[in-house]
Amino acid sequence: MLVGSGKLERYWDGNWNKWLVNLAQGDYAVSDEPILLTTVLGSCVAACVYAPDKRMGGINHFLLPHAGASDKGSDSFRYGVHAMEVLINSLLRKGAARDSLIMKVCGAADVVSGLSNRVGQANATFIRLYAQHEQLNLQAEDLGGDNPRRVVFDPQSGSMKVKRLIRHLSREQVEVEAHQAEKLEQAVLNSADVELFGRAKDTLR
Fold this sequence. Notes:
By secondary structure, the chain is an alpha+beta fold. The chain has one domain (about 1-195): CATH 3.30.1330.200. About 25% of the residues lie in helices and about 30% in strands. The chain is built from three helices and eleven strands; from the N terminus they run E-E-E-E-E-E-E-H-E-H-E-E-E-H. The strands form two sheets. It has a six-stranded mixed beta sheet, covered by helices on one side. It has a five-stranded mixed beta sheet with strand order 2-3-5-10-11, with no helix packed on it.
């Protein structure tokens, strides 16, 4: 079983000797198959959520905590609030017990000095508050710093492996980071945001 956003394509990786599924920004995936889910992060965050009772897990890749007041796309997977709810609810729909979920997170780097620092910090703060608010077991984190990361998640075992990458971004990636910083300026980051998180529906268990 492999479910998620968009068209998830597998490719064989001889180094891992497994099929890999690569996620882009705004994607998520849930699986119980012997595959690996991977993505590359700058100031974005990936949350890896594992259900040990089902030997099943999922990962997302979000750009910002939530949309600004003028943004009509608040239900986009690009935003942490929606990305987390969809990921957790997908696991619950597949029979995972909510109180057994284990979360590991990484990303939130300052990869473009002066541009993405606020974005990375906001994303790191958001995911920690989300775990606390949702009473999720945040077992491990690798957040901050100034290096991009590649994360590789095994949905059957819950293993999250992170590789720090050389600090180098293409012009296209720099533009994305700059756009994220502009979006963050429009967002209201205050204590009231916790109310927007919304608890994942226990009825789906």
